[in-house]
Amino acid sequence: AATPAIRVDVNLRALNAMGISPDQLRNALTAANVTAPQGFLSNGKTRMAVDATTALHDADDFASLVIASHNGTPVRLSDVAHVYAGTEDAYQAAWFRGKPAVLMYVYKKSDANVIATVDRVKAQLPPLRSFLQPGTELTPFFDGTPTIRASLREVQATLLISLAMVILTMALFLRRLAPTLIAAVAVPLSLAGAFVVMYILNYTLNNLTLLALVIAIGFVVDDAIVVIENIIRHIDDGMSRMQATLAGAREIGFTIISITASLIAVFIPLLFAGGITGMFMHEFAVTLVAAIVVSAAVSLTLTPALCGRFLGAHRVREARDRQPAKPHALDRFHAGMLRVYSRALNFSLRHALLFALTPLALIVATLYLFTVVKTGLFPQQDTGLIWGRANSSATVSFDESRQRLQRLTAMLLADPDVASVGARLGSSRQGTSGSFNIDLKTRAEGRKDNTFAVLARLSAKAAKYPDLNLRLRPVQDLPSAGGGGTSQGAQYQISLQGNDLASLQLWLPRLVAELKKNRMLRDVGSDVDEGGLRQNIVIDRDKAARLGISVGAVDGALYDAFGQRRVSTIYSDINQYQVVVNALPAQTATPDALNRIYVRSNSGKMIPITAFTRQEPSLAPSEITHENQYTTMDLSFNLAPGVSMGQALQIIQSTASNMRMPGDIKLNVGADFRRFQQSQSGMLWLVLAAVVTVYIVLGMLYESLIHPVTILSTLPAAGVGALLALWLTNTELSVVAQIALVLLIGIVKKNAIMMIDFALVAQREHGKNPLEAVREACLVRFRPIMMTTMVAILAALPIAIGLGEGSELRRPLGIALIGGLLISQSLTLLSTPALYVIFSCLAARRKAWSARRRERRAVRRRLTEAQVNG
């Protein structure tokens, strides 16, 4: 587990008997191993390097080294020390599957692709194995890429399933092969355009970009559906194929532009969002926008062209001169839905004011749901990897800690769902804590339980080992709910900061005790130990000065004996190794070992350290942490199943507040909680920015301040639906669910745009009043609205149901989308026309009032002119 080195374990008794001080031995080792260049010989014509054998290379070279003389006899290093090839740090150990091992961790660069990096690393393993000695194995472990690969395969399968469901939906609504295929053409072309943009921007096919493509399927066919349905309507009304294509495309062109422009506007704030939300959403937004732009171009050009070439009249229409054909069951179903909707629409228009107030009630409901829905950063993923830390008391020796850790490792390996365990112990002489890298078997290898169930089972088994405190956490691909984890092994961390160490040592254990009482938190613990054993050596400086001994000499002697001092470096062809000096382990077992330390005085005499020091045993913390100049003590914990980050943060803050800690002690949340707070506070501004951007774009397109408000009135219903779906399914409002909220802003307003565009044309070109115009618009656009909504729902359905690898990350997006679409579809088909009528009446009254005001001004102006002229 540590770097190879030459170990020099000094026999303090032999060293003292020879009259050799620790610093004399150290200086001899340093002076005997020299690697500096010696220079050159030159006679004017040639030059020759001078190379003396001043470097030592192995343990035998050092063992035979003469370090001093005693009574005229040379003293070799082997006479006073045990010299051997060992490890640089004697207080580290590691095991893999219960066998001694060296654990090497490989980390990718921040801009590197993880799968490509792992593939390249694994490609180098066969050549490396050829250099290993027989019996030595080189085994990859703790590799998260199998889960990532499986997740990518699942998203690809979801993409195909969504595509199939979308095409099937169009076929059921259109019931003709030609329009179904024409609409389906938009999908591969739009995805191809997105791939081109991804290639130019050097994006990779990852969970985010693939998820964007899955969602894009529901978007990109919408434009084509609207165009095709409008053309079919004209064909069925008796127009020729070419006339219907030209008229239908002309009528719907502005609608497509409005839908696309406003949809792109939704994602503009995402492109500039900062923090974890911006990092997560950027590639998603760019990929989706690319697909949407290509889809709009296809719908305005290729789709009408294909319609003009291949669409024909419906067979029922063609047969109207003969005996009428019996309507298809789907036609009867659609006609029945239209009749029901027509009656509901008439009712809403008769009570327009009541339905116009619906968005206000929905805004209140949305705000309430925000307070009851669980909140988090990212969903927990079943990666099949678990990381943990086991701590012993600071007073336990390294050897005892090693035995305890080996017993715990054996217990972990005995679990039927565990494939391998890499364990590592210690990083210093005080290192009594060990870490675990636990690989679970894959589903194909027979693993039955998910990562979280295995973790709970292992934690329960570890509770039977009272001499070790084991904390486990699932490893996450994202900096999610504890994705980074803590040094104590738990997922989440908070800290207490203050100026007084004693005060922190008093209050942190109290806070830990209070939090342990709450069943919503698990594995609550802190980094504060009761204090490691410490042997303080108090120097009598006056006496040391009289004896001619400096404090630096005392420090050097103690470090040489007990500190694993690196005194020299050995250079090989491919590496370098340290020479480490320490006293024999048998002579450093008790405080009595300090009595064997001698220090050379200025006069050359060897003085025992006991002649000018005294020893005082005590207890003291192993380490004291500072952050921003404050003394800091950390508290870590895991969450019980079903508990969100928002709930945990509220519990901790209320518990700390109720304890009434001193004012100089401050509660500071960890990195994951800071990201969580930033994502929650940023979500409001993100949604607000998206709404404002869409309003500005719609205002420019419609040259109106009122119609954009009517269109945006669909948003509260979508918000209620999304949050209600999350609440009913016990799903957290995470960054992934926030993406769904932003997407809904772009999706649900399509319905309003299609209705309002038609109504405005009916008023402008056919002279209808607002009530007649919007009623006709709702009935005519009912079919495409139903089609586009069903397509979007079915595109998101595989994401919401997802059961494969990585589905935990995607599921909140699908749930929120479906919930928002269902509620919005149910309510806005009635509230939007009511609002249109109310706003149109208000606009007409305002226009009439403005006209009367202008007329009165004109009359007053004429009277004034008449009086002046008279």
Brief sketch in words of this structure:
The strands form seven sheets. This protein has a six-stranded antiparallel sheet, with helices on one face. Among the domains are: 1-87 and 547-614, Multidrug efflux transporter AcrB TolC docking domain, DN and DC subdomains; 146-378 and 676-853, Multidrug efflux transporter AcrB transmembrane fold, CATH 1.20.1640.10.
Task: Please provide a written account of the structure.
By secondary structure, this protein is an alpha+beta fold. Among the domains are: 1-87 and 547-614, Multidrug efflux transporter AcrB TolC docking domain, DN and DC subdomains; 146-378 and 676-853, Multidrug efflux transporter AcrB transmembrane domain (Multidrug efflux transporter AcrB transmembrane fold). Helices cover 57% and strands 15% of the residues. It contains 28 helices and 23 strands. The chain has a 6-stranded antiparallel beta sheet, covered by helices on one side. Strands 13, 14, 21, 22 and 23 form a 5-stranded antiparallel beta sheet that branches. A hairpin with a 2-residue loop joins β4 and β5 (73-76). α8 (177-200) packs antiparallel against α9, α8 crosses α11 (275-300) and α23 runs parallel beside α26. The longest helix is centred in the last third of the chain and has 63 residues, at 807-869. The radius of gyration is 38 Å and the shape is elongated. The N and C termini lie far apart (111 Å). The relative contact order is 0.12. The model is unreliable at 315-323 and 480-484 (pLDDT under 50).
